[in-house]
Structures are given as C-alpha cells and as structure tokens.
Amino acid sequence: MPLYFAGMFARGVNNGHIIHGRVKLPSLFAFSILLGCSQREPTTPEAAAQASKPFEVTTTLAGSIRTPLGYGVVLNKKSSLARTTYLIVDPECPLALKSAKLTTVWERKEYSGEYQYAGVAEGAAKKGLTAASIAFVVLDVWGQHIQSLDHETIEDISEGPFKSEGHWRLWSENDASRFMNSFAFVRRVRLADGTIWNANEDRILATIRQKGAELTREDISTKKKAAKGPPPAASK
User: Are 148 and 57 part of one and the same domain?
Assistant: First the structure.
C-alpha cells in the first residue's frame, strides 16, 4: 500500500510521486527517504573529529617543572617531573605552527618578583596576515584544567617565518607549582584582505580529549577566567 504524508512541502521530483503539499510514495522508497532524513550532522566534539582528517599533534619538551627564583631557591626543587606542550595543528590554518612551548619563570622585581607563564610558538605564515592569536590550555599534575591563555600578535605579518612570545602573570605560587602540561593551537588569524579565520574548537577539544584530558568547551576558552585573574604581563 502507498503511504500518504499530508502537510509536507517538497519540490523537485515531478514524476507523480512527489507533489507540492502532499507526498505519495511507495512504502519501501518512503522508508528509505525517512531513514536518510534521520541522519544528522555530528553533535559531539568526538563525532566532529571523526568527520574529517584528524589534526596533527606534535610534542615539545618544555623543561623541568622546577622554577629557579635565585639565591639557590627553587620551586619544586625535589621534583624530577618535566613539562610537555602538545601542539595541535589544523592543516587548513593560514598560519602553520611547527613548535610551541609553555613553561614558568620568576620575574625579579626591585624588592620582590612574580611568577609568570612564558610561551613561545614558531612556524610560518602561508600568506600575509595582520593579526594572530595563539592559545595555550594549561593543565596541572593531575591533568585538570588550570586556565587558558591567549597571546595576540597585532602587526603586519609577511608570508614566511613567524614567531610569537608571550608572558602572563600567574595567579599564585600554587599554580606555578602544580602546572605540568599544556596544549597549544592557533585560535584565530586575520588575513591581509580582512578575512577572519577561526579554529574549529569542537575538533580542537576532541583532539585534546583523545590525549586523555577531560576538558570542556568552556575550559579551552579564555573567557572563563580571564576577568578574575591579574592582567597579563607585557609581551616580549
């Protein structure tokens, strides 16, 4: 028996089977159409990552978890742990990073000092740019999220070699002590013609989760805690 679907509006097949306002289909074909329409686009970060070629992930040793303060004083002095930065590379990005590293330093002041994150990323611009934003997602020794950082370079960037260096004040000595690993990626770039390229953060998150870090979309955004912490240190 044929199936009748009232109230549906369709166009295109004008062979007596599909009519504007009413659909008259043989049963088998109708069920095939219904099953096909039930397919949806991936809705989770993991599904999004499977929908296309996985991003490349490169590993950079970022040095010891110890931070020298001077005069023989060292934070985490008795630890043998070493930090790692995982660089996530989208081949479609107009800025092709080759390496990235995030560590901690002690910036000495006249009568005291402060802990800072020190990040550096290097690669090459595939075309002329006028701005670039490099993101670092910071994890502690337990693999838990501490915060996310962005370093923005706002200048004319010619096609060819690129380097970004940023410093951010840490919130506390405890954060400096427990910081272990990080993930880095290009968050967005502005091309010379005014076009804005944005990272696919669902796929970025899925790639991070594949490395065992149970983060959320909010975790990889700098909007979560940026207003609560101290302002960033001056870039170098």
Answer: yes
Task: Assess whether 18 and 78 both reside in one domain.
Answer: no
Residue with tokens 């007596």: 16
Question: What is the number of other CB atoms lying within 10 angstroms of the CB of residue 81?
Answer: 12
The owner of tokens 């369709």 is 10
Cα(161)–Cα(96) distance, rounded to whole angstroms?
A: 10
Does the pTM of the predicted model rise above 0.70? yes
% of residues, the chain, pLDDT over 90: 63
What are the phi and psi torsion angles at 177 (to 5°)? -70, -40
The residue segments making up the domain with residue 27 are 3-37
User: Mean pLDDT: which of 12-21, 123-132, 227-236 is highest?
Assistant: 123-132
Rounded to an integer, what distance in angstroms lies between the CA atom of residue 207 and that of residue 57?
8
In the structure, how many helices (H) and strands (E) does the chain have? 4, 14
Q: How many structural domains comprise the chain?
A: 2
| Residues ≥6 apart with Cβ < 8 Å to 46 | 206, 209
Find residue 69's DSSP bridge partners: none
Query: Does 217 fall in a domain?
Result: no
